[in-house]
Design goal:
Elements (H helix, E strand, L loop, with lengths): L2 H9 L3 E4 L2 E4 L11 H13 L6 E8 L9 E10 L4 E9 L2 E10 L24 H8 L8 H5 L4 E5 L14 E8 L10 H12 L20 E12 L9 E11 L2 E10 L2 E14 L6
Amino acid sequence: MNALTQELVELLSLEKIEENVYRGISRNLVGKRVFGGQVLGQALRAASYTTDRPAHSLHAYFLYGGDINAPILYQVDRLRDGKSFVSRQVRAIQHGRTIFTAMISFAHPEEGLNYQISEPEYPAPEQVKSEAELKKMFVEFVPENVRASFMRDRHIDIRPIDPSNPFQPQPEAPSYAHYLRTHDTIAPEIDELSLHQAIAAFYSDFTLMTTALRPHGLSYLSPSLQCASIDHAMYFHKPFRVDEWMLYDMDATVSASSRGLNFGRMWQNGELVCSTTQEGLIRIREIETQ
């Protein structure tokens, strides 16, 4: 596999320490703190090791920022093993305290009523520029002290549909969309639905929270902004592949009390396969002047 895809798989493959306890490595993906998508994907992966069913819903809270220089322990509590549903609670522990908690429900697929809203119409992924190409267009705006980290390749191939310059944000509609997939095909020997779900959880956290910033003319790089994920919910409707293009369509409904509420829908081959919800902190700070 491509090196970035291999690193992503390794990031989301946990070491079993003892029964119901797993350890995950941390990586510097977005700065000084652990990327929320990493914890989401690792927590989901830890819970999936305790059942043979795929997940259908995840509800999580981010309690403290994670330390990128230390591993994370995942404690899985087996709350229920029912005929229809399996319930798990996961706590992510670092330096002796819980930094993240999630409730995850699993169920075998079954036949039933089927309905979905219509997929939005956007240009095909081959018709839009990759994030890597867009970064090269913005490089003149990037301060020298953050240029190396900004230009670094992500572990996911991202293709924004209607991109804007994050260094010169302007007020826009509270909606955003991009295509995502891994850089390479998932190897057959590790090709499990639980891994695809964990990777989808990983990349569900990219840009979702910042959708609520768009009508305010702010971006995640705005110097006056304090931005952090508070919670994250994810629903898995149908099977999918993360190594094939997936459309991630997002919108925000409200920003109030220094929080923004964002919604996302993942589409693949015309099917709505995942839905996400996230509330994020979007606090404006005063900038000290000399």
